[in-house]
Structures are given as structure tokens and as C-alpha cells.
Design goal:
This protein is mainly beta and about 350 residues long. The protein folds into 2 domains: about 170 residues, Cupredoxins -  blue copper proteins (Immunoglobulin-like, Sandwich), CATH 2.60.40; about 120 residues, Immunoglobulin-like, CATH 2.60.40.420. It has 7 helices and 21 strands. Strands 12-9-14-19-16-17 form a 6-stranded mixed sheet, with no helix packed on it. The two termini are about 30 Å apart.
Length: about 350
């Protein structure tokens, strides 16, 4: 109950199930005003405004276009990003090759986006390591512009190993995974905001030397998409909207609402471990699972940084955290960013316990 009005739980969150999932999700996005912001009449600027509101009220920000000019969802996603964490290769000396390229993806059902990325997916593949592993890394640029790499899990000179390479070039260097945790990696070529906004990021999971107890493990990368119409009729990244913090979609693992029709799964009483990275590029994540509490939260995924009995944990852009929870009863448990202006843009999925 909020005031004197009662809201249906699924309507409030924009959740859908069964055969009506796609239509209900589209309706929910419409109800949340995807890509729009209307300042109340007579409202004054406030230092406590949200980034979107502040940007919209700024004299220097571009006005938001009408909803008719923004992307609209339709149908269902052609593919679902597999969130399961696969086992790490036991070999402590690993070879890792990545290719920077352009590709077309769906950032929401029916919304085709001309992305920049690594190895053809957004987010890029999860790199799963063990603490102490050494990585012999190669970046190959198969794109039409300069790109680079920045591993938050590495300790290596920026001016040497994170430099931009041109199309057709490659860069090699070795690094060691000295700290356990969950980390971001991304392109660091200027403007970094645009390279991130166009999809050039992924997650690194580094297992601690003393392994965590067994659990059902998933990786979730939260990010934002800022879109404008491309010449080919698809959508592409809009740097102006990125600078004004006017996202069209806020998502987990590259596409809005994808884990509603196909939830993450677990069984009652089973330990669930969620490795969450906030790729941004700008918004904070207020990560929360509705109907559950986090038994443990490891800041940046490091077991030395443990918090207990947590309801919601904030992850900054470029940061990460590992969440453990045990859900005793069967049912559906939504995971969201609890910044609800952005939840309605696609940052909501389900854990189905059965």
C-alpha cells in the first residue's frame, strides 16, 4: 500500500510471464516513459536531481526528443545471453586472444543496434581466472577505427599496454591476476564514454586461492544504451545523449528485460552467487533482489571485503560486487537496479526458484 493506492506488484515492476510476456514488457516500458523526461510545470532546478533530470534541465543539454522518435520494442529477442559462469581453465598459464570489431546486436526486442565490441558480443565474453594466474594476452583490431583494452584486474603500465592500436594492428602483453574478485574490462580509447556506450566492455572473474563454497553461479553486467537512428535504419550510439545521461535502455547482459521470459534458475535452499559488474558508462547500480536478502556481499568480489545481511548494494560505474543468497521458498524473485527510473528501461530480470 502506497498512500491510499494499491499497485499490482508485476505492473509496478514491468514484469511479464507466459505467452503475454513480450507484449506486457513492451507496455511496461511505455508506461515508464522510455527515453523521455517531462519537467513538472514550475519546477525549479534541484541539487538533488537525478542525472537524467539534471541533464534535461540544463541550459547546455540537448532537449529530449519526443517518444515517437525513440526506439520501440516489438516481438521477442532472437537470442538470450547465457549468464552462467563456466568453470575456469585449471592451467595457471593462460592464453587469451580478443578481437575488436563491429557487429549488430539487439539491445531490446526488435531494436537492432550497430555496436562496437569484442569477439562479437555485448557484453564481451566472461574471462574466468584463478588468483595467481598469468595471462598471455593479444588484442587484434578487426574494426574500422582505433581501439584498446583496459583490464581492471591487471596491474600494468597504461601508456604501454593500454595504448590505442589502429585497424589491422595487434597488441600483446602479459599480466597476472594478483587479486581475487569481479572486475570490468573495456576499451580505453578516447572518447571512452562513446566506446563504452557502444558496447566495448566485459567482466573478469578471478577465483580466490581458497575457493568459495559450491553455488549456482551467474554473471550480470549492467550497462546503458543511448541511441540515435543510423543511416542503415538501425540504431547507433548517440554521444550527445551519453553526455546528457539520457539513456534509452538500462540492461543486464546487453539486452533489456531478457531474463523475464527466460529467468535465471535455482532450487529452494540452494546457494546462489551473482557476480555483478556495472559497466556504466555513467549510472550507479543499486543492485537488489526483491523478496530476498543477501547473505553475503563481497565488495569488488574480494572475500576479504565481506558484508552480511544486505538488502541493496551500490556498485559504481567501473566497479563490481559478488552477491550470495539462499532463497528458501519456491517462487519468482526479481533482480533490479533499485533506481526505479532506470529499472523501467530494462534493468529487471527474474530468478525462478523451483
Amino acid at each position: 500500500m502506497i498512500g491510499t493506492r494499491t499497485f499490482g506488484r508485476r505492473r509496478f515492476l514491468g514484469l511479464a510471464s507466459g505467452a503475454a510476456a513480450a507484449g506486457a514488457v513492451a507496455a511496461a516500458c511505455k508506461n515508464y516513459g522510455v527515453g523521455t523526461y517531462e519537467k513538472p510545470a514550475g519546477a525549479a532546478a534541484s541539487t538533488g536531481a537525478t542525472p537524467t533530470a539534471a541533464a534535461a534541465s540544463s541550459d547546455h543539454a540537448a532537449p529530449l526528443p519526443s517518444a515517437a522518435d525513440r526506439p520501440k520494442t516489438s516481438g521477442k529477442l532472437a537470442a538470450i545471453y547465457d549468464a552462467r559462469l563456466l568453470p575456469a581453465d585449471p592451467n595457471p598459464n593462460k592464453t587469451l586472444v580478443m578481437e575488436a570489431s563491429e557487429q549488430q546486436i539487439e539491445v531490446a526486442a526488435g531494436v537492432k543496434f550497430n555496436a562496437w565490441g569484442f569477439d562479437g558480443t555485448v557484453p564481451a565474453k566472461v574471462v574466468h581466472l584463478r588468483q595467481g594466474d598469468t595471462i598471455d594476452f593479444t588484442l587484434r583490431n578487426r574494426s574500422t577505427m582505433g581501439h584498446s583494452i583496459d583490464f581492471h584486474a591487471a596491474q600494468t603500465p597504461w601508456n604501454i599496454n593500454y595504448k590505442t592500436i589502429l585497424p589491422g594492428e595487434e597488441l600483446k602483453f602479459a599480466w597476472r591476476a594478483s587479486f581475487p574478485g569481479v572486475f570490468m574490462y573495456h576499451c580505453g580509447t578516447a572518447p571512452v564514454l562513446q566506446h563504452l556506450g557502444d558496447g566495448m566492455y566485459g567482466a573478469v572473474v578471478v577465483d580466490p586461492q581458497q575457493a568459495f563454497e559450491p553455488a549456482r553461479e551467474y554473471v550480470l553486467v549492467q550497462s546503458e544504451f543511448y541511441l540515435k537512428k543510423a543511416a542503415d535504419g538501425n540504431w547507433e550510439g548517440d554521444l550527445t545523449r551519453m553526455q546528457a545521461v539520457q539513456p534509452d535502455f538500462v540492461v543486464f547482459n546487453g539486452a533489456a528485460n531478457q531474463y523475464q521470459p527466460q529467468p535465471l534458475t535455482a532450487t529452494p535452499g540452494e546457494r546462489i552467487r551473482l557476480y555483478v559488474v556495472n559497466a556504466g558508462p555513467t549510472l550507479f547500480s543499486a543492485f537488489h533482489v526483491i523478496g530476498a536478502l543477501f547473505d553475503k556481499v563481497y565488495v569488488d568480489g574480494n572475500p576479504a571485503n565481506v558484508m552480511r545481511g544486505i538488502q541493496t548494494w551500490t556498485i559504481p560505474p567501473g566497479g563490481g560486487a559478488t552477491f550470495e543468497l539462499v532463497i528458501p521458498e519456491a517462487g519468482q524473485y526479481p533482480f533490479v537496479t533499485h533506481s526505479f527510473a532506470y529499472t523501467g528501461l530494462g534493468a529487471v530480470g527474474l530468478i525462478e526458484v523451483k
